[in-house]
Amino acid sequence: MTQTARPAAGTAGGAPDRRLWSIIILGSLTAIGPLSIDLYLPALPALAADLSTGAVQTQLTLTACVAGLAAGQAVAGPLSDTLGRRRPLLAGLAAYAAASVLCAVSPTVETLIAMRVVQGAAGAAGIVIARAIVRDLYQGVAAARFFSMLMLVTGLAPILAPVLGGQLLRLVPWPGLFAVLSGVGVALFLGALLGLGETLPPERRAAGGPRATAATFRDLATDRAFAGYALTIGLAFGAMFTYISGSPFVLQDIYGMSPQTYGVAFGVNALGIVTAAQVGGRLAGRVPLRRLLAAGLGIVTAGGAGLLLAVLTGAGLYGVLPALFLVTSGQGLILPNATALALSSSRASRAAGSGSALLGVAQFTLGGAAAPLAGIAGRGTAVPMAASIAALAVLASIVAAAAARTPEPPEAPEPEAAGDAGIPPSPA
Q1: CB within 10 Å: which end of the chain, N or C, has fewer?
Q2: Burial class (CB in 10 A: 0-12, 13-18, 19+), 155
Q3: How many CB atoms lie within 10 A of CB 191?
Q4: Residue 4 backbone phi and psi in degrees, to 5
Q5: Burial bucket for residue 315 (CB in 10 Å: 0-12, 13-18, 19+)
Q6: TM segments (predicted)?
Q7: Which residues are registered as beta bridge partners of 130?
Q8: Domains and CATH numbers, the chain
Q9: Percent of the chain with pLDDT over 70
Q10: Whole-prediction pTM value?
Q11: Rounded to an integer, what distance in angstroms lies between the CA atom of residue 249 and that of residue 235?
């Protein structure tokens, strides 16, 4: 597949400052999910104690956010195909800032769970519409490179968020972390308002209505290539989210890490995602995207098997930490390439917002369903987390192998995007 991309009409040509600003904004929008989840990870044990609840109930606050992220994408994606990208994006970011304040003032774990659903649903607009904007302008190898580039920004969220969260806990109780998220929502709203233009002109917008949306979703779900790569993303993220939800208790309660040390360890693992994504971006075009995806899945599977072995044999942190690094690093090859492959399918190319939405639904639905598995046997054992990660990685590899048997779609001419997105073509 060759690179195809055109600048949005009215853009500043190849101006590096415009391009950098656009990458920062779009990358920050896709980082809403990990930022909303990871900032308060070091606070989970303290939150459980403060609200007098257990590990499973506390992990449900993660699941609730993920459920909101999934449901919100299913709404925001099709809306952006009908109304354009800007209006749904700005509305979602405004609602995210308000919902984060409500999370901060939640008096019980049940209220917090409910508010986390709302917060996730609102923030989903940023994730799904950012992907759709990239697909408006790029496809195939060019899209994979751009998604890898966005992970430079997206990857900062899981690297910095737990570290920042751990340090903030020295100054404020856990509700203060949600106040910080509200401020992030306001900043992203202003950035999108001032820095992103419309990339979907009226003549390319889809007909609205529930029936049209349902028909589009049905067409995408029956596309074997799209459905296979979407399920691959969901299963791989399920392994990742099992680690995200289980590691605060495993590493702090079982292996004795402090919240601050845990934040550093989590950040190192996230750095592995960024590094792998940039290596994959460099190789895209020289190595087939399907082969890069298979390499990422192999890394995650090896990490899952190593983690289970380390837990069962009592190897301690010397066995657990390297295995977790593999589990997380492999995601940097999986997510950009599986996303580009899915959105390059013939049906997804005609409805980027809806296609992006279904990818998000698969990713966050399976991730949310996997989260409670890590704590199903209580806070005193790491076996459920390790076994779940290993099983999900194997399933993702099997599904991706089946999807790879479908013919690779030809590179189609890229449609001209209207508006001023400020995103010049990516370099070859």
Answers
A1: C
A2: buried
A3: 17
A4: -135, 130
A5: middle
A6: 20-40, 60-77, 89-107, 113-134, 146-164, 176-196, 226-244, 264-285, 292-317, 323-343, 355-376, 382-404
A7: none
A8: 16-403 (1.20.1250.20)
A9: 84
A10: 0.70
A11: 22
- By percentage, how much of the chain surpasses pLDDT 90? 21
SS3 of the chain: CCCEECCCCCCCCCCHHHHHHHHHHHHHHHCHHHHHHHCCHHHHHHHHHHCCCCHHHHHHHHHHHHHHHHHHHHHHHHHHHHHCCHHHHHHHHHHHHHHHHHHHCCCCHHHHHHHHHHHHHHHHHHHHHHHHHHHHHEEHHHHHHHHHHHHHHHCHHHHHHHHHHHHHCCCCCCHHHHHHHHHHHHHHHHHHHHHCCCCCCHHHCCCCCHHHHHHHHHHHHCCHHHHHHHHHHHHHHHHHHHHHHHHHHHHHHHCCCCHHHHHHHHHHHHHHHHHHHHHHHHHECCECHHHHHHHHHHHHHHHHHHHHHHHHHCCCHHHHHHHHHHHHHCHHHHHHHHHHHHHCCCCHHHCHHHHHHHHHHHHHHHHHHHHHHHHCCCCCCCHHHHHHHHHHHHHHHHHHHHHCCCCCCCCCCCCCCCCCCCCCCCCC
- Burial of 32-52, coded b for 16+ CB within 10 Å and e otherwise, reads bbbbbbbbbbbbbbebbeebe
Q: Which of 119-128, 138-147, 278-287 has the lowest mean pLDDT?
A: 138-147
* Token pair 């302008």 in the structure block, residue: 137
The CA-atom distances, in angstroms, between 239 and each of 236, 370, 384, 417 are 5, 7, 12, 36
Q: What is the pLDDT of residues 388-424, one digit of tens each?
A: 999 999 999 999 998 888 765 544 444 444 344 445 4
Q: What is the pLDDT of residues 44-95, one digit of tens each?
A: 877 887 777 777 778 788 888 878 888 888 888 888 888 888 889 999 999 9
> Cα angle vertex 257, ends 252, 259, to 5°?
80
Exposure of 40 in the CB half-sphere (CA atoms within 13 A) = 28
At position 184, the amino acid (one-letter code) is V
Burial class (CB in 10 A: 0-12, 13-18, 19+), 6: middle
